[in-house]
Amino acid sequence: IYKVYSEELYRGKEKYGIILVHRNITREYEVNQMKSEFVSTVSHELRTPLASIFGFTELLLHRDLKPERQKKYVKTIYKETQRLTSLINDFLDVQKMESGKQNYEKRYFDVLPLIEKIISLQRVNAPSHRIALESQDGEGIIYGDKRKLEQAFSNIISNAIKYSPGGGQIDLNAKRDGDKLVVSIKDEGLGIPEESIDRLFNKFYRVDNSDRRKIGGTGLGLSIVQEIVKAHYGEVTVESQYRKGSTFTVSLPSVPGHETVREEGTGQG
Ligand code: ADP
């Protein structure tokens, strides 16, 4: 996209020339478009939980409700508050990443118990899904930021749940492949149309298909995943069949168990 500026040149009353400046404003245009997308996503995503919090607090304040009902409403308010917090954290994270201010505190740790923990936390939101992890003990040791990787795996696993609204199987597999730890997360959900795959990890990108229009989101989750995985010198990829399911694969440089022990100075030799 180009913007053209023109300026006519006169000597007295006589026109002797014209200056034309073509400026490429494609980037500006894209940035503006992203900004307006951002504003509409943010306002929509913030308004939904806020409306629900507002509505339920009003009920609690002005109605005489049975204790069970009160408790149910407070639970909803609690959940919506959590949602708001995680939304705002996502926005802040993206901003930090953009400005290069994201700090990673890396050390050696085993990813497998972390993934198990995420699964048991997420099971609460997934009563109609079966979530299973296949792995081998001692294979999950890597050098990384535990909190950040928890965020990355949580995003992928919660997407697997969120985008398989009919329930189904979610299979996680963690195995070592050479000097890498490869974790795959496979679901039987809505899948991803082929033309969306290239943009899937872009900031604010959401698949805009009727099958998922009612599912909320900001389009930030996967961009955060990619950023975190890259900061660990790893890679995240996706394979998907539309309407059949998706498999996200994260590979991270891994440290074989015995090397870690040596690193910590507790091994023999
Ligand atoms: P959000 O979920 O907030 O829209 P994400 O960045 O996490 O943002 O995901 C981007 C898009 O990728 C989503 O809008 C969704 O359509 C698609 N997507 C992500 N994970 C899956 C999945 N497991 N199955 C189907 N579609 C997915």
UniProtKB/TrEMBL annotation:
Residues 41-256 form the Histidine kinase domain. It is found in: Cell membrane. This is histidine kinase. It comes from Mesobacillus zeae. The chain holds residues 547 to 815 of 946 of the full protein.
